[in-house]
Amino acid sequence: MSDTEKITGALEQLFAPEDAALQQALVAAKEAGLPEIQISPLQGKLLQVLAAACNAQKILEIGALAGYSGIWLARSLPAHGTFITLEVSAKHAEVVRQSLDRAQITARTKVRVGAALDLLPTLQDEAPFDLIFIDADKPSYPQYLDWALKLSRPGSIIVADNCIRNGQALVEPAAGDTGSTAALYTYNKQTATHPRLRSISLPMSDGNHTDGYNISVVLPEA
Ligand code: SAM
């Protein structure tokens, strides 16, 4: 076991132990044949720390998969809070509903099925969201950022996963490149330079691969 793996294991044990509902969400995902591309326990705990920092009462997630990150997020809310997650796959959404149900947090959660870019305009009456977590199709990240700004308030926190990609998301792409890493580069660049955002992308390594969150705080309008 590498030093990074040992340190990650110790940190998970101390700060982010998984309970039965989180473990069962992973089992359910596997049984349903879903890809194992959920966040890590430490990333889940970091979302909860950020939710506490912005006193989150309403959280929006783009990209639910099997509800693993959704459990971390919904649990960071008070009982009267609202967690909305957007998922394009009806099959994934069904697993999400079951996972949230097992975690006994369905009362504060809403699973909306459809392409996020179609659903986001329908959320304006439910905004502002205090925390927005972006973790869906990468080419749409720049558009998700536009929507996150529309659906947030000063002090809201916007988190986007996979913004390092072993450094590829930090390399300026060739003109006309419309791929995932090009969009992630655009996302990094936009958040680094946007006048209403204070942002950072944080490298997180599992010993083999370095990826990580981009974290942005929405500033008041000047
Ligand atoms: N946040 C999840 C977690 O950590 O447990 C992982 C999400 S997974 C990386 C990405 C999810 O986004 C998949 O379930 C995929 O079906 C969904 N997705 C992809 N494109 C989407 C779109 N256009 N709108 C909504 N969801 C989308």
Concise description?
This protein is of the alpha/beta class. The chain has 8 helices and 9 strands.
How would you sum up this structure, described in words?
- With 222 residues, the chain is of the alpha/beta class.
- The chain has a single domain (3-218), classed as Rossmann fold.
- It has helices at residues 3-15, 20-31, 41-53, 68-75, 90-102, 116-119, 141-150, 180-193; strands spanning 58-62, 82-87, 109-113, 131-134, 157-160, 197-201, 204-205, 210-211, 214-218.
- The strands form two sheets. The chain has a seven-stranded mixed β-sheet, sandwiched between helices. Strands 7-8 form a two-stranded antiparallel ribbon.
- The longest helix is centred in the C-terminal third of the chain and has 14 residues, at 180-193.
- The chain is globular, with a radius of gyration of 17 Å.
- The structure holds S-adenosylmethionine (SAM).
- The site of S-adenosylmethionine has 19 residues, from helix 4 and strand 2.
Q: How do the helices and strands line up, and which of them pair or pack?
A:
Elements: H1 3-15, H2 20-31, H3 41-53, E1 58-62, H4 68-75, E2 82-87, H5 90-102, E3 109-113, H6 116-119, E4 131-134, H7 141-150, E5 157-160, H8 180-193, E6 197-201, E7 204-205, E8 210-211, E9 214-218
Parallel strand pairs: 1-2, 1-4, 2-3, 4-5
Antiparallel strand pairs: 5-9, 6-9, 7-8
Helix pairs in contact: 2-5, 3-4
S-adenosylmethionine binds next to helix 4 and strand 2.
